[in-house]
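Lab notebook: predicted structure, single chain.

Context: the supervisor wants predicted structures on file for every construct in the current expression panel, including those that have not yet been purified. This is the next one on the list. No modifications to the sequence; it matches the entry in the shared construct table.
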Amino acid sequence: MRHIGQKLAKNPQKVGKARIFDILSEPVVTEKSTLISQSNQYTFKVPLDAAKPEIKQAVEEIFKVKVRKVNTILSKGKQTTRRFKGQPGKRNDVKKAIVTLEQGQNIDVAAGL
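Prediction complete. Output recorded below exactly as produced.
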């Protein structure tokens, strides 16, 4: 628990090389994500346990760019049972990260990870 006046650590521990490539699983390529890419924002699918500082560090190390901020979205999967190829199941939860880069920086998402 945090005491009054105690500051949180601004720089968390460095993420390992193996974890960096696990964090950015794939870019999200939709109509909306291509529209926001014009304003230096890029969207990636990330694991459910990925934190914002980890995502920022992964993008900076993989693409060699400077990240301004990271926003995350947690989309809950449908809870009702659906049939997938005859088997009952439900959709998984998905976490997406919208990464805003500094002015003048860009990422070529089409080139891949």
